[in-house]
Design a protein that fits this description.
The complex is a heterodimer. Chain A is 32% helix and 28% strand. Chain A has helices at residues 45-53, 74-78, 96-106, 114-124, 140-152, 170-184, 196-202, and strands at residues 5-16, 19-30, 34-39, 60-65, 68-69, 81-84, 158-162, 188-192, 205-210, 213-217. In chain A, the strands form two sheets. A six-stranded mixed beta sheet of chain A has the order 6-7-8-3-9-10, with helices on both faces. A four-stranded antiparallel beta sheet of chain A has the order 2-1-4-5. In chain A, a hairpin with a 2-residue loop joins β9 (205-210) and β10. Chain A is globular. Chain B has helices at 2-16, 18-50, 58-85, 87-91, 95-99, 105-134, 142-167, 173-195, 214-217, 223-245, 247-251. By secondary structure, chain B is mainly alpha-helical. The longest helix of chain B is centred in the N-terminal third of the chain and has 33 residues, at 18-50. Chain B has one domain (2-246). The chains are: A alpha/beta, B mainly alpha. Chain A binds chain B through residues 14, 16-17, 50, 53-57, 59, 75-76, 78-79, 81, 83, 85, 87-91, 93-94, 102-103, 105-108, 150, and chain B through 1, 4, 8, 12, 15-16, 92-104, 247-249, 251-254.
Chain lengths: 224, 254
């Protein structure tokens, strides 16, 4: 069976004012593939993820998520996206369970599937004992895990992760890698990271961002 | 989805404790105003009895000014609630949750708008109990009272829609709240500006926010006033939706 192309990036460029942050970037990702975005801060990794998530609009080029154009068919494309931004989108006044129920509603998970979905992510991220704790009172590592849980809750076919292991200890990082390995067969992953271990263990392809431009490694058909 | 967002918005107001502080402030200030108006009314009515000048209505003397003060007081509260909803969410990056979900801009704005409107009504409710206390000892003009409430609700929904539109642009809650307050103040001032211009330019006061509430407070329900507030609210809700729809362009600096 031929794996479906879940992310298609067609020659995108993005500028802020007169500065080009990304120029002529193209790649495709199929189900079961993981692409790592690596490079120093300020080189365009987060911008690329925001473009893929529909938070930013490319100056030139097109992005297709699960076959839908993220600019013109945004609502359809966004149904397939699970996004973990670098600044965690958490409501500190809610408990972990209340927050995940809110996410389940936002992601339009049918009500009868909430218990199963919640149980799955809480167990996978070892959050069962914290589900009734206020998010504002959790440690940084636990908050990060709640952030990952919200991205995985609706079983998205495209997972966009911006420095997902930030704030996690060694064991939690191993657990995270196990979760992502399990998830990988279901969809495509784009991961912005500084961790070489993560890249080696999770991703087959790499885009190296630098101030001089973007270099593609083992990425076919990536062009930059 | 709109109901889900409205529910979340309102419960978030309750859980962060912001609304409870505002409620306490609202009760202190408007309670004091109500007490002063009652004392003033009591003094005036006694004097009128002594001088045999006939009686005058408690609704006109107490309720009308109380509601006018309430409307003014909400000009301070509404910016805080609107910025809590939109600007604060942008600052704390929780807005990205909505923007990366399959939810339309219309659903986001309407959900948030309704949630905050319920929050405003929650703050307004205890203020409405004060006039009802009068019914224990005196007769209240129920028609004027209900018309006043209707006018207040229309005014609050209009100020909230404008506040939402301004809050859509900012990342700093304090700055957004200040801009909203200045705008509301200016729109109130239009009545005074219009009254002081030559007769050909007096139509300017038709755009003043409080000007259209006066009839309601006096007990007269005028379709022109209803239309003003409906069009005002509808326009700024539409503009807020449009603005949020263009959020990715805004973030892209385009």
């Amino acid at each position: 069976m031929i794996a479906k192309e879940l992310i298609i990036v067609e020659n995108i460029s993005f500028s802020r004012g007169s500065t080009w942050v990304i120029q002529n970037l193209s790649f495709t990702l199929k189900q079961g593939e993981c692409l790592a975005l690596i490079g120093s801060n300020g080189t365009g990794k987060t911008t690329t993820l925001h473009l893929l998530a529909g938070l930013l609009r490319p100056t030139l080029g097109k992005i297709f998520i699960n076959g839908w154009n993220i600019q013109t068919q945004a609502l359809l494309a966004k149904q397939s996206i699970g996004f973990l931004p670098d600044n965690l989108p958490l409501y500190h006044e809610l408990t972990v369970k209340e927050y995940l129920i809110l996410i389940a509603k936002l992601k339009k998970i049918p009500k009868e599937n909430w218990p199963g979905a919640l149980e799955r992510v809480l167990e996978a991220l070892s959050l069962e004992n914290h589900q009734n704790h206020l998010i504002g009172l959790l440690s940084k590592g636990l908050k990060q895990r709640v952030g990952i849980a919200q991205a995985l809750l609706h079983n998205p076919s495209v997972l966009l992760l911006d420095e997902p292991t930030q704030g996690l200890d060694a064991k939690q990082m191993d657990d995270f890698q196990t979760i992502i390995q399990q998830y990988k067969s279901q969809g495509a992953i784009v991961l912005a990271t500084h961790s070489e271990d993560e890249v080696k263990s999770l991703c087959e392809t790499t885009l190296q961002f630098s101030t001089e431009g973007i270099n593609a490694y083992d990425c076919h058909p990536c062009t930059a | 989805m709109i109901v889900t967002l409205a529910q979340h918005e309102f419960t978030s107001l309750l859980k962060t404790g912001k609304i409870w502080k505002l409620l306490a402030l609202c009760q202190c200030i408007l309670g004091f105003i109500f007490y002063s108006l009652m004392e003033d009314y009591s003094f005036k009515s006694q004097q009128s009895l002594l001088e045999n000048n006939g009686s005058f209505g408690i609704t006109e003397e107490v309720i009308h000014p109380l509601f006018a003060w309430t409307a003014l007081f909400f000009f301070f509260i509404t910016p805080l609630l609107a910025t809590h909803s939109l600007t604060q969410e942008r600052k704390s990056h929780t807005l990205e949750l909505y923007l990366t979900s399959a939810i339309s801009s219309t659903q986001i704005i309407l959900g948030k708008y309704l949630g905050i409107l319920v929050g405003q009504l929650f703050l307004l409710l205890p203020v409405l109990i004060m006039p009802l206390l009068i019914t224990l000892h005196d007769r209240l003009d129920i028609g004027q009272f209900l018309s006043g409430i209707f006018g207040l609700i229309l005014l609050l929904s209009a100020t909230l829609s404008l506040s939402f539109f301004i809050a859509c642009f900012s990342k700093e809650p304090l700055i957004a709240a200040l801009v909203i307050f200045v705008t509301l103040f200016f729109l109130t001032l239009l009545e005074w500006i219009g009254s002081n211009l030559n007769p050909g330019l007096q139509w300017i006061k038709e755009f003043a926010l409080l000007y259209h509430c006066k009839n309601f407070l006096s007990g007269a329900i005028n379709t022109r006033d209803i239309l003003y507030y409906t069009v005002f609210s509808g326009t700024f809700i539409y503009l807020s939706v449009f603005r949020l729809h263009k959020e990715s362009d805004y973030r892209s600096g385009k």
